[in-house]
Amino acid sequence: MVSYFVRRALAVVPVLILISIGIFVLVRLAPGDPVMMQLDPEIAASDSTYVDRRRAELGLDKPVPVQYLAWAGEVLQGDLGFSFVSRRPVLGLVVERIMPTVRLMGTGIAIGLIIAIPLGIIAALRKNTSADYATAVVSLSAISIPNFFLGLAAIFVFGLTLGWLPTSGMGSGGFGESIRHLIMPAGILGFGLSGPLVRYVRSGLLDELNKDYVETAIAKGASQTRVVVRHALRNSLVPLITVIAIYIPQLLAGAVVLEQIFAWPGMGRLVLSSIGQRDYPVIIAFTMFVGLLVVIFNLIADLLYAVTDPRIRLR
Amino acid sequence: MSDHEVRPPGLPEPDGKSVLAGSSDTGVQAPAQIQRRSPGRLALRRFTSNRLAVFGAVFILLLVVLATFAPWLTPYTPQEVNLQAYRNPPSAEHLLGTDSSGRDVLTRLLYAGRVSLSVGLAAALGAGLVGLILGSVAGMVGGRVDSIIMRTADVVLSFPSLVIVIVFAGLFGPSLRTIILALALFEWPTASRIARGLTLSLREREFVEAARAIGSSEFRVMVRHIVPAVLPPLAVVVTLLVAQAILVESALSFLGYGVQPPTASWGNMLTEAQSLTILSRMPWLWLSPGSLIALTVLAVNFVGDGLRDAVDPNQT
Amino acid sequence: MTDAVRGQLVGSDARPLLSVDDLEVRFSTPDGTVHAVNGVSFDIQRGETLGIVGESGSGKSVSVRAVMGLVRPPGKVTAGSVVFDGNDMRSLSQRQLRKFRGRRIALVPQDPMTSFNPVVPIGAQITEMIRLHDPDCSKEQARARGIALLESVGVPSPERRFDEYPHQYSGGMRQRAMIAMAVANSPDLLIADEPTTALDVTIQAQVLEVLQDTLRETDSAMILITHDLGVIAELADRVVVMYAGKVVEYSDVRTIFHNPRHPYTVGLLSGLPRVELQGQKLTAIPGNPPSALQVLPGCSFEPRCSIGNGDPVCRGEEPPLAVIGEGHGSACHYHDQVPELVERVLIPAVKGSRDE
User: Fold this and answer.
1) CB pair distance less than 8 Å for A199 and B273
2) Residue C299 pLDDT exceeds 70
3) Which chain C residues are within 8 Å of A222, Cβ to Cβ?
4) Do B304 and B240 touch, CB atoms closer than 8 A?
5) Which residues touch C149 (CB under 8 Å, ≥6 apart)?
6) In chain A, which residues have pLDDT < 70?
7) What residues have CB less than 8 Å from B265, skipping those under 6 apart?
8) Reported ipTM exceeds the 0.85 cut
9) Which candidate from C98, C114, C133 shows the least CB-CB separation from A212?
10) Which of B5, B15, B23 to mutate to test the interface with C (most CBs of C within 10 A)?
């Protein structure tokens, strides 16, 4: 099994290289000049040697492929360069933003499952009843309502009107405070994810309930609850892991928006400010880390899949 | 029922993914009826018997009409600044109130509808076209070309399109063209997979073989036989992409990387609401555009789901 | 149903273990109501093996599922009675039925590949069966019993295999384990639904042997559903032949082979319908098993029958299941012409196959 994961992990490397080249080229082709943007326009106009010197310092005068190779070499040594804006090492900047984003996404996935599994079960067991249709509408709404609108509405209701929950930041206090800060952004992220998940839980459970082993379980004298929870549900949740892995990119996109609204100090907020400032090294590093994050989540999904399905575990 | 022998041929498989009210009982027709009706009319009948899909279609149609005839429906223009009417709550003159520049919110909503709907449609059509071309080429040609196209699709799909589009818009400057282009370039993989799958299955079918046998070129086979067959399921994908594109565009505009003020789009009408004052004291400024986005996307999704059930009730 | 037939079907003892009477099962589908089972009756004595034969779609599987309350929507038992050891099974709640399922009536399903939960070890599925009906049984005791059961059906190194998953078992081993699970609580009645159909021919014999040995040990009665008369010959005491949701012939096993009195039974014996069945091209043969959607007047086998095809009597009048001998009934207007058909069809066929 270990070799399976090593192989999966290695297969990702060329993809990451492809992504890095794509992004690097994209960024360099973009209009706007980081040196000019950092300088007072008057100085830039009067002192062109200073501009050239700054460019040389930043390595922007060499041809693009050379810049890429130099950059890639540094990346492999763990050096992602310095932010044009804050002059701090990019690696540090990005790394300190990863955990908040991962925390947000992880909690979002958990909440998504907590919403989707019971709803999916109800929809499947009450198939073609009003409960089923109501779940379908809820699930479609979760897909359709923009998360920034939900975020604003939640801040309005729970933060400003009711005063129950903090509206920005992660909180610096203890565990309880962190949870209170997490509830709204992670809850909205999770609600959005629950939309597609409900459908998969429902159809997966219906598929499983139709299988022979379910009849075997009923014929053994197991109760309906036991048949659904112990037998069918467990089998229907295995493919759900893959579904979540597929939705990781969308979840990340949702996190970027929600981080902005809730002033959540994650990667999304970092990249939005960096784009405004044309802070190329940060944008490139961010994009690489997004790729890495997607890949890591996919590997975790593979691992979980193998853990839950003995047919893969023992292969 | 595990006992397959008792399921008669006409008995429907438990419908797994159809989630819409009314869709499930229209899924199966008596065989005789299927033979009598053309597939198109049958699909139309299935679609119209799906109440939510019809509701969605009517809602969108209404929206299109309102947006199109906006100049005749409202006495204001979307850019008309009126500092006397600064952030007025809804009233008889301004049904949905006014914004920070005294512009009529309802008027801006209608004009913004033009932008949001056309961006959504254009981006989805673009993505569908790119997907159709790449997917059917991958399916027809196969081999190396196929694997390159599909691997690229995997990579694009494994990236959060919103993030890429933000980067794109941030770098090339936000404009309508950038958004449409970026969405078309990063939302095509779903469409390409459908197109490729269908092409692969059609490629070996008799009528395509026959066309080849009488000397039709690959290109001609593709245009004459494969593309028409791919269109109905592609229409479903494109419809769902419209919903997706409207969402992405609104998020983008909300963040300031999409449609630029003073041009109104539903997304950028919410940008101001990031200020807590507006959020808490002037809910009319953000409630109406936000709800309109949600309703529109919901309506498009209803239509998309209805189309999917109508085009192929047994599929997914 | 006449008292005479009733008496015939009851067999020797006064009170059968299970008595199914005039059972009717319908499936409501968007295309109409499917009449899957139309007035089926049979009895089974303690310790007896009853074979039910028929093609796919003859309603045999649904009939026995009705016994356990396992007919699932859109299917519904609409009429008839099922009395098991004095209990009216149709009037029991799901909760009450659970006390019977797995404990007193157990099912050996058709496909051992799909009938075990793929993500639960075989052993755990067997102990679930034990502990569902014996909550006092500790995990260790259940494990010991499970291992003993696996051993008794001939699963090698049962200690180790107990913790293995279904996909690690071969098809034959899985069906052995399924039998072990079914008899875990020494049920009074075992329902084996085509227990060997999904297996390789070489393994079929072994599994049948295991089934036979297990029955001998537990003294259970068994309903054996099959479309394979060879299996019937080996295991069954009495036979019920079903066609289009009805019983068309019943008798003891000897009589079925030596003196069949229904053209359909003859067809089964000649093996021809089986070939059609396996080819799954039933529609290609004119008038094949009638659509269970429409109920036609007359004999449902008439369109395929070599005696009555086109006969106005067969077309117009449904033949009743009549007693024609000791423990022998047939639902054919021309059952007295069947021996002649046997002469014509069966004997040359047997000869022909010998000549080859």
Assistant:
1) no
2) yes
3) 98, 102, 128, 132
4) yes
5) C126, C180, C181, C183, C184
6) 1-2, 4-5, 8, 23, 26-48, 54-55, 57-60, 71, 312-315
7) B112, B115, B116, B119, B249, B250, B253, B258, B259
8) no
9) C114
10) B5
